[in-house]
Amino acid sequence: MNISNIISIVTPFITGTLGFLFGARIFKFQRRFNFIERQLNELYSPMLGIIKDIKTKSSIRTRISNIANEIWKEEVREWQKSGGTVEKPDIEPYLKIIDYDNKQLKEELIPQYQNILKLLITNYSLADEETTEWQFIFSEYIEIWNRALTESIPRVVIEKLEQSESKHDEFYDHIEKKVKELKGKLKPKPLWKRINLIVLKRGR
Predict the structure, then answer these.
(1) Whole-number Å distance between alpha carbons of 128 and 115
(2) Which of 88, 89, 106, 180 lies at a CB distance of 3.0 to 4.6 Å from 75, suitable for a disulfide?
(3) Nearest-5° Cα angle at 58, 147 to 126
(4) How far apart, in Å, are the Cα atoms of 179 and each of 113, 132, 168, 186, 187?
(5) Domains of the chain: which residue ranges?
(6) Which residues contact 128 (CB under 8 A, 6 or more apart)?
(7) At what angle do helices 169-186 and 134-149 cross, to 10 degrees?
(8) Contacts of residue 121, Cβ cutoff 8 Å, sequence gap at least 6
(9) Separation between Cα atoms, residue 104 and residue 108, nearest integer Å
């Protein structure tokens, strides 16, 4: 059997094998792509949307509260300086701010935290390990507030438990970075780059 006959016999086998291996690699690559897409669309992007809503409302609440507090103190100082000759400051409008904040916490913010927790629970398989570590923290945070809002826990206990929103800042930053990371992985690449990436991964 001459060399040309050997080549004619071996070539289809080699071509078929390479085609199979390359196809399998593309399939694996596509599965990974689909998983990342699900991570972004079903878990991380929805969470980031909720987080931005919480942060916006919290920022507005803090600004209003700080300004109202300054104005109230100034009104009280002016009233005290006058020896009572000017009209006593009306505290009712300021109490309404507190009432609104409490209502917003109960009806809007706590449900949003619950939505984050629900996303973490229902999409647990899509979350990175670092993300899943926050599930307990959110569950605890929500449970304490549920008890507080139903007045089934003393205020002094709540203060000791430090129910501050700032404890979630690290988580918020993590989710925002994760969304950027996943979007970067899903960003369309030229065909030759995708082929190179598949080949490089094959070589590992």
Answers:
(1) 18
(2) 89
(3) 75
(4) 19, 15, 17, 11, 12
(5) 40-187
(6) 178
(7) 130
(8) 135
(9) 5
pLDDT greater than 50 at residue 203: no
The number of residues in the chain equals 204
The pTM score is: 0.74
Alpha helices, DSSP H only, in the chain? 3-38, 45-81, 92-104, 110-122, 129-132, 134-149, 155-161, 169-186, 191-203
Per the structure block, which two tokens stand in for 135?
A: 């599930």
Per-residue burial over 41-64, b = 16 or more CB atoms within 10 Å of its CB, e = otherwise:
eebbbbbbebbeebeebbeebeee
Give the chain's mean pLDDT.
82
Contact present, 121 and 165 (Cβ < 8 Å): no
Q: Over 80: is that where the pLDDT of 8 sits?
A: no
Following DSSP, what letter does each residue of 29-59 receive, concatenated? Answer: HHHHHHHHHHIIIIIIHHHHHHHHHHHHHHH
pLDDT attached to residue 198: 46
- Burial pattern 133-145, b for ≥16 Cβ within 10 A else e, equals ebbeebeebbebb
